[in-house]
Design brief:
The protein is mostly beta strands. The protein is built from three helices and 20 strands. The chain has one domain.
Length: 367
Amino acid sequence: MAYFNGVAYTGKSVDQLTPLFIDWERSSGTDIGLEAGFLDNRLSIEADYYNKITERAIFEIPVASDLGLAAAKQVGNQADLRNRGFEFTANWRDKTEGGLTYSISGNFGYNQNQVTKVVTGRNPIYSGGEGLANGSLATRTVLGRPIGEFFGYKVDGIFQNAAEVLASAQKDAQAGDFRYVDQNGDGVIDGKDRVSLGSPNPKFNYALNTTFAYKNFDLSLDIQGVAGVSIYNANLGVRYGNENFTEDFFKNRWHGEGSSSTYPSANIGTTKNSAPNSFFVEKGDYIRLRNVQIGYTLPSNLLNKWKMQKVRIFANAQNPVNLFGYKGFSPEIGKPTVGNYTPLSAGIDANVYPLYATYNLGLNVTF
């Protein structure tokens, strides 16, 4: 009920748009595997090829904001997706004459993600605005491409002076701004000049797991990583809360003619500098020591005196070593802290909390 000049008027408004019918997601596919053992099963391998189709995937997509909805999004059956690739695992277990027992297991996988059908037909779905400045949308989902791929302008340097601006297709730019590539050569920088900038879906993943035991000592190591993946570092263009510029950006920023040809000025968070572009997209490859643990089990003859079956002392470290080139806190981007997560906003680092390392000592006692 609404009131006008103290008079009540009945009425209602629609603030959510719900599809008349939502069907179940369905999965179908082909999986071909091979398992084999050699050398008295000291060496075992597994090889697997898969082609999985997810039909009628359910997630949110943006809709026109002028519809008057509380959130300009609609949940429904949006697309069909295909994930195709292979996985390979090899494991070696053995014991030496000196009494060392050990196992080494490694796996490697390759995956290709592709949209095979989408409700918008050949029209792209633009999304990925969670945490970005000026309401920009950094991802595109379109038939034949990976879901939620990054999409924007290709940066071709930094304007150094007003003369370069006047000679370019960006007449409204200023010195220190990004210079974008005029992809179609029409002399104007607009939405038609945007291109694919990378995918948040890793192509490769790998891991190595090892265990060693010698007399009363034991050691285990777990290593994991991904490759062929991109991250959208939205933190660089969002400086309106409690954030600050990173040391890398501050030292390398453009602050006068000739000072930088790769980093823009501190005006990065406003105007067209904050538009999705290749500067914000970085390689997300990493290799990480997930876990390392060393332990010592007290001799049994000593435990018999204490009427104990087993006493083991150990030291453990989780995520102690991380190797990556990404300029953010961590290349392992989970769900964004702003907005609801959908596959269309994966890989966007907008204040994602950094991964932390944990170190602990422990004692296991068995009576």
